[in-house]
Amino acid sequence: MESEQGRAAVDIISLAVYSFTFLLGLPSNLLVLAVYLRKARKRGATPCVVYALNLCVANLALVAWLPVMALETAARGWALPLPVCLAYSFFLVASLYGSCLFLAVTAVGRYLGAAYPISYKLYRSGRLSCGVSAGLWALVLLHLGPGLAAEGGAYFTHPAPLGNGSTCFQDFTAEQHRVLLPLRLEMALLLFLLPLAATAFCTLRCVALVRRSCLPAGRKRRAAAVACATLAVFVVCYGPYNASHVVGFVAGGTVGWRKEAMLTSACNVFLEPAVMLLLSPPNRLPGLAGRLCGRAGHGKTVTNRH
User: Fold this and answer.
1) Could you give the CA distance from residue 228 to residue 222 in angstroms, rounded to a whole number?
2) In this structure, what DSSP letter does residue 297 have?
3) How big is the CA angle at 187 (ends 184 and 191), to the nearest 5 degrees?
4) Using an 8 Å Cβ cutoff, are 113 and 120 in contact?
5) Residue 39 φ then ψ, to 5°
6) What three-state secondary structure class fits 33?
């Protein structure tokens, strides 16, 4: 009885998180898309614009599947056609790790623009940024390929433990675990931990450069807050899910709290747009966004123009 009540409480929290993130994530990402498309038309495809648009695409891919996540939670099982589970799993993982990588390259770009403005300007082109973006997506797809091959024709669906329908991307066979466990560990290290280390280094260096600059105190605080917010979103949103990969590899199986770890990952769809809007100068934010962010003042030039 207690376990049933506990599961019901987790389901209620999960439904609330999915609904909240969908209601905030859809309009906020569409707003970011409009802001940076407008910047692209006016100023060209700068690295910041290219990476922000890719980040927005990754977020919208996750937003599109949030109703499916809510339906799965409410039905306590997979209620859609079995092949849909494979597409659901693909876009879910691709979105999460794509977001990790593009957050990292955005932080690296800000740091290079602040620390080496003249040298960085020589390589600061939209074409190069598009090439970097294509390479990052290819890296994600390269890791997803073996995982999709491991599904073995069952679309990652399995009969529910209590005989109530099927589950999607939650229960795995021993053969699938032999492929998925080391693959998850590699993805956690290469696609999360390494980008996190780069983001942390660049963020801390940017904060140090801002503190030593001649900017007014208000601008220093804002630039430092935006940089630290990016790092905090990275850790809070993606840390638990990737920790489940590491723990699962050590334990030799999928951890029971892996689905709950996805809750914080879903929150990135409205937290990341907030960070990206802060990176955009307020006088370029249309309508309501400009009025909301107008009081914050202009951020440091080197943190916005890259």
Assistant:
1) 10
2) -
3) 155
4) yes
5) -65, -35
6) helix
The terminus-to-terminus CA distance of the chain in angstroms comes to 56
Are 54 and 133 contacting, i.e. CB atoms less than 8 angstroms apart?
yes
Rounded to two decimals, what is the model's pTM? 0.84
Among 127, 133, 121, 122, which Cα is nearest to 58's? 133
Residue for token pair 């960070």:
275
3-state secondary structure of 158: strand
| Amino acid, res. 137 | W
Block means of pLDDT (10 residues each) for the chain, 306 residues, are 70 92 93 89 85 92 93 86 87 93 91 85 85 95 84 64 69 86 94 95 87 77 80 91 94 88 90 77 44 40 43
Burial of 156 per CB tally in 10 Å (0-12, 13-18, 19+): buried
Phi, psi of 167, deg, nearest 5: -115, 155
Could you give the C-alpha distances from 257 to 7, 10, 104, 161, in angstroms and in order?
Answer: 12, 11, 26, 16
Which residues, at least 6 apart from 191, have a Cβ–Cβ distance to it below 8 Å? 97, 100, 101, 139, 140, 143
What residues contact 195, with CB distance under 8 A and at least 6 apart?
100, 101, 103, 104, 234
Maximum Cα interatomic distance, the chain, rounded to a whole number of Å: 66
Q: How far apart are CA 119 and CA 129, in angstroms?
A: 16
Other C-beta atoms closer than 10 Å to the C-beta of 54 total 23
Task: For the beta carbon of residue 150, count every other beta carbon within 10 angstroms.
Answer: 17
| Phi (first) and psi of residue 34, to 5 degrees | -65, -40
What's the pLDDT score for residue 197? 96
SS3 159: strand
